[in-house]
Amino acid sequence: MGITITQNLLTSSWKAEVATLETAVGHFEVDHAVKNDCRVAFFEIARDGHLHVNITHRHPTRTPRGWAGPASLPQGFVHNRTFGDARPSQIIRHVREMVFASRIGEERRSPGVVVAR
Questions:
Q1: 58: CATH
Q2: Could you report the per-residue pLDDT of 28-45, keeping only the tens digit for each?
Q3: In terms of Cα–Cα distance, which of 36, 82, 34 is closest to 56?
């Protein structure tokens, strides 16, 4: 499983920040195993001025605070968020939280614990 990163920037306003974010997201796979393939898309919308981020997972996930979605698309389940004056460290924290959001229906089990049904 893995993370795919894309970008569609219309201006240079977010270019440096997105380069930093892409590097950080690239390290996610090294730091943690990704259990739900996902695509992280950084983009701008004309005359908007904000950085938009879509994260699409193959399987539905919980929605962390601040994210919109999910929308069900043929590619998977997409959440999005818009950033204005946030620093890259703040953005990456939110992106990481969404990339590793728990899968809906995934039961958290501890070793040795039996889940009664």
A1: 3.10.310
A2: 875 566 667 899 999 999
A3: 36
Indicate the pairing of strand 38-43 with strand 3-8.
parallel
**55 against 30, higher pLDDT:** 55
Residue 108 within any structural domain of the chain: no
Query: Is 80 within a domain?
Result: yes
Which stretches of 1-117 are DSSP H helices? 15-31, 88-99
Cβ neighbours for 112, distance < 8 A, ≥ 6 positions apart: none
pLDDT over 70, % of the chain: 83
The candidate with the shortest Cα–Cα distance to 76, out of 112, 96, 101, is 101
Q: Within 10 Å of residue 43's Cβ, how many Cβ atoms?
A: 17
- 110 assigned to some structural domain: no
Instruction: Give the pair of three-digit tokens for residue 4.
Output: 């795919």
Q: Count how many domains the chain has.
A: 1
Per-residue pLDDT at 114: 42
